[in-house]
Amino acid sequence: AQKVTQAQTEISVVEKEDVTLDCVYETRDTTYYLFWYKQPPSGELVFLIRRNSFDEQNEISGRYSWNFQKSTSSFNFTITASQVVDSAVYFCALKVGTGGTSYGKLTFGQGTILTVHP
Amino acid sequence: DSGVTQTPKHLITATGQRVTLRCSPRSGDLSVYWYQQSLDQGLQFLIQYYNGEERAKGNILERFSAQQFPDLHSELNLSSLELGDSALYFCASSGRTGGNRNTEAFFGQGTRLTVV
User: Fold this and answer.
1) Which of A99, B5, B17, B26 has its CA 20 to 30 A from that of B113?
2) Contact status, residue A68 vs residue A56, Cβ threshold 8 Å
3) What DSSP state is assigned to residue B85?
4) Closest alpha carbon to A25 in A81, A88, A70, A77
């Protein structure tokens, strides 16, 4: 069975601070995919990034960066110079499998509520 | 805009009733997923269809059923509704033909169901 843990329930920062959201996952599969989704107050789920288990290269995209470490089963997400518009619930998710199961379900963490104050 | 369309956006109904939630996937996506988001359970996978066939089942109650039609849109039917079924129901799609098989799922805006 798969499991995703986001230990931080809520984080509150002041605008322009950097903030890191933690994600730890559990799976016995050797091939898997990790995702971050954002859910703003309006309610929709917005895809942010996907990482494959065989690609540990970390990535920076504008103010966002991701740190994937298989050795610690972690997939952390950092927002640099946070803005009020970053306030949302952030979900880490895991999908396992290859071949016919590659379209499989996502297992989500419980989410981290990020509030950025002006 | 994710390209996934869900209707209706809001639904209020009484206990014991039956409702149907509708989902149109992104153009070309073959897989449709249904998820339920509630305060106590978080985001839970319900069921997946791929090109009209059921592919995987999660924590879906027997009172709930789904199907995917030849045009690839999907419906989630919820019957004998209880207060505890109040939640945000998401549809997602992925698996565009000819593209990367291991693609992310794109979510619709959700249907907020309130059972009173």
Assistant:
1) B26
2) yes
3) G
4) A70
